[in-house]
Amino acid sequence: MADQMEKTQENTTEAVKELPRFNVGDTIVVNYRIVEGDNVRVQPFEGIVISKRGSDNSKTFTVRKIGADGIGVERIFPLFSPNIESIDVTKQGRVRRAKLYYLRGKKGRAATRIKEAPAKA
Questions:
Q1: Which of 30, 36, 43, 106 has the fewest CB atoms inside 10 Å of its own CB, making it the most exposed?
Q2: Residue 12 to residue 2: CA distance in whole angstroms
Q3: Is 117 exposed, middle or buried (CB count within 10 Å of its CB: 0-12, 13-18, 19+)?
Q4: 80, exposed or middle or buried, with CB in 10 Å at 0-12, 13-18, 19+?
Q5: pLDDT at res. 58
């Protein structure tokens, strides 16, 4: 019985990837694996994290970027998705809100302007 428990613990720890710690307001690049028939490709999605929600295995985060012609594009990613290859934190932002939904109403440069967090010594 104890051997079975040890094996399941080993399997769960192997399955969990080491993801960087990021918060709302950070600019990140999510490299997401997309399967199209027989082809598998990795699509990077770079933007600002505007919300994090959920608990345990059902955590999700929303990333917003300004696409072509100034149109905002949002994408919701499950944090523990096996299709996420990697997450790279490009810039750490300093915000005073848990949800940055107010960015949806801004246009152009104002939609991406977030103060940068001071470097920790």
A1: 36
A2: 16
A3: middle
A4: middle
A5: 95
Please spell the DSSP secondary structure of the chain, one letter per residue: -HHHHHHHHHHHHHHS-------TT-EEEEEEEEEETTEEEEEEEEEEEEEEE--GGG-EEEEEEE-GGG-EEEEEEETT-TTEEEEEEEE-B--S-S--GGGGG--GGGGT--PBPPPP-
Question: In angstroms, how far is the first alpha carbon of the chain from the final one?
Answer: 48
Please state whether 11 falls in left (phi above 0), alpha (psi between -120 and 50) or beta: alpha
Residues 51-75 have a mean pLDDT of 94
> Can you read off the two tokens belonging to residue 101?
């939904």
Average pLDDT of span 17-41: 94
